Amino acid sequence: MSWGQWAVYHRFSGAWQGAPKRIRDLAEAVLSIDPGTAQAGAYIILGRLHCEAPHVPLVTGWVSREKGIAYLRQGLARAPDNQALVYFLADALLTWEPAQQGEARALLLRCAASKPRSDWLVEDLHYAEQARERLAALR
Question: Which of 13, 40, 95, 103 is deepest in the core (most CB within 10 A)?
Fold first, then answer.
């Protein structure tokens, strides 16, 4: 996870140093072993990776925004109460599929209004706040 966070903040240097490929390979390994691990966390990682990593020919030419959205949708189907998945799918749709703004808004409203799960209280409250902020920015 720390590679992923580092790569988000150092997009191009991270890509040149191979972080996205290592992250992709590890997340795909988790999916092959147990796709439900950590509330479908590998789907979040792969979805965000494909949606946020820079597309650098010969380095990250495999990055696909469509695959990213598909991974997020698959994760949400597997873990429908995971508010991180709800939020990140909405964010990806707003960024890469503007025609799906209605679906993205509905997902943000769902995330903002959801009751936090007791086992994931801090995370759910965080994503609810992020969703409210994103909705406010859309108005």
Answer: 40
Does residue 16 have a pLDDT over 90? no
Which residues, 6+ apart, have CB-to-CB distance to 97 below 8 Å? 69
Residues 80-127: tens digit of each pLDDT: 999 999 999 999 999 999 999 999 999 999 999 999 999 999 999 999
Does the model's pTM come out above 0.70?
A: yes
Convert 39-107 into a string of H (helix), E (strand) and C (coil). Answer: HHHHHHHHHHHHHHCCCCCCCCCCCCHHHHHHHHHHHHHHCCCCHHHHHHHHHHHHHHCHHHHHHHHHH
